[in-house]
Amino acid sequence: MKKYLISILAIFSVLPTMAIANVTVSGLVTDEEGEPFPGAAIKVVGTTKGVSADMDGFFTIENLSENQKIEISVLGYEPQTIPATAGQNLKITLLPKDTAIKEAIISAKAPKDCEPGKNEKEVVKDPQTQKCYVVSCISDRYKLINEQTAYRNQKLISFNSDDEICDDNVCTSITVGTECEDQNGKNCTPENNSNIKTAKYKWDDKNNQLICEIKECNNGYLPNDEGTACEVSEGPCSETQVKTIEHATAGELKKKICYATACENGYEPVKGKCVAISGNCKNMPKNAVSAHREWDSSANTEVCIVDECKDNFRVSDDQKSCVSTLSKEDSEAKIKELQENADAMKAKEQSTANKLLGAASMGSMGIGG
After folding, report:
1. Under a CB-based contact definition with an 8 Å cutoff, are residues 29 and 35 in contact?
2. 4 DSSP 8-state letter
3. Cα separations (Å) of 108 from 70, 84, 85?
4. At what angle do helices 2-20 and 328-368 cross, to 10 degrees?
C-alpha cells in the first residue's frame, strides 16, 4: 500500500508543475516590409509542440514554461528565437537569409536608431510603436505622404503632447510622414487654374525647383508659352492642318500655327505635338522603386509598368507589380507542410494529455483500494 501511495504522490506532484506552465506568447509575424507571413512555423525549442500563424500572420501559443524558448521560421528566411517571457501582441520581423540579423526584431524591444531611406533627409522614431517617420525629404521634388502632426524631442517623437518625452515642455510640434514620394509627373493645380484640363509637376534641375506646368486646356484654349495659364485660341484647326501633326486627331490655332489638343490612343499632346505616353505613373505600385506609363494596345488602355522593386521583391511577369522573391509554389507548399506538421503535433499533444489523465485516474483508484 505504501508503494502505491508513493507512486500516486509522484504522479500528482507532476501536475502542479504542469499548472505552472501557463505562459502565453502571441504576436504577428511579418517580413521586413510589414507583409504578414501566413503559415509561419512557431515551435517550442526542444519539443514537438508548435503552431502555425494564421492567414493574417497572427499566432498564439499557450501553456509554456518561463524557461522555454520558441523559434519562428519561414522557408527562405532566417529563423528567430525568443524567450517565452517575451510577452503578447509582439511584432516579429523575419529577414531573408542573405541579410538576416541573428536576433528577432520585436516591437517590445528598442531597435537601432532610424536611418534615412531613399529620398529621405531626416527621420525620427516613435518609442511607443518603434516605428520610424520621415521629417523631411532630400529636395522639393519629393513630398511627405500620409502626413500627421507629432511632438518632437531630439530624435524621438510622440503623437501625444502629454507624453513623458515631452516633460518640461521640451517638445516642438512637427509634421511627419511615412515616406517621400517623387512629385515629378504628378498632377498639380496651378494658381491660375481657369480653363485648365490637366497640369503636371515638372522638376527644373537648373533652378532646383518643382514647376506646375499646364499640359492641356479646355476646348478653345491653349497653354501659353510658359505653361502657366490657358489662353483663348484663334479657333480650331482644319482637318488638313490636323493631319500635318503625326498622331493628332484635333488641334487649336495659335499665331496661325496648329497645336495638337487630342491624339490617337497611346499618345498625348505635349507642347503642340503628339508623343507616346510616358513618364511617372500616377500611383506607384506597392513595393516599387520606379515605374513608368505605357499604352497597352491589346487592352486599349494606359498601364503602369514597374521598372524596379525594393529589396527582396522582383518585377512580376506582367511587369505591373512587385512580388516576393519567394515563389508562390514554394510558399503554398510550405504552408501546406506547416499545417500538416501543426495537425500532427496537435494530435500528439492530445495523446499525451490523455495518457496523463489516465495515469492520474489509475492513481486515484489505487488510493481508493
Report:
1. no
2. H
3. 16, 13, 11
4. 150
The 3-class SS string of 89-129 reads: CEEEECCECCCCCCCCEECCCCCCCCCCCCCEEEEEEECCC
69-73 and 80-83 strand pairing: antiparallel
Residue 331, SS3 per DSSP: helix
Burial 41-51 (b: 16+ CB within 10 A, else e): bbbbeeeebbb
Residues in the chain: 369
Report the sign of the C-alpha dihedral through residues 302, 212, 262, 219, in that order.
positive
Neighbours of 61 (CB within 10 A): 19
What pTM value is reported for the model?
A: 0.49
**pLDDT band, very low/low/confident/very high, at 273 (cuts 50, 70, 90):** very high
Note whether 139 and 181 are within 8 A (CB).
no
Distance, in Å, from the CA atom of 244 to the CA atom of 240, rounded to the nearest integer, reads 7
Phi first, then psi: what are they for 130, rounded to 5°? 65, 20
Q: Torsions phi, psi of 167, nearest 5?
A: -60, 150
**Which neighbouring-strand residues pair with 123?**
134
Q: What is the Cα 83 distance to its own chain's centre?
A: 27
Cα 252 to Cα 260: distance, rounded to the nearest angstrom:
7
Cβ atoms 258, 273 nearer than 8 A: no
Q: Check: CB of residue 50 under 8 Å from CB of residue 342.
A: yes
Q: pLDDT tens digits for 26-59?
A: 889 988 778 888 889 999 999 999 999 988 889 9
Residue whose C-alpha is closest to residue 59's, from 72, 74, 77: 72
Alpha-carbon span 162 to 142, nearest angstrom: 31
| pLDDT tens, residue by residue, 279-296 | 888 788 888 878 888 999
In the beta sheet, which residues pair with residue 363?
none
CB neighbour class for 241 (10 Å; exposed up to 12, middle 13-18, buried from 19): middle
Q: What type of residue sits at position 306? A: V
Residue 363 main-chain phi, psi, to 5 deg: -65, -40
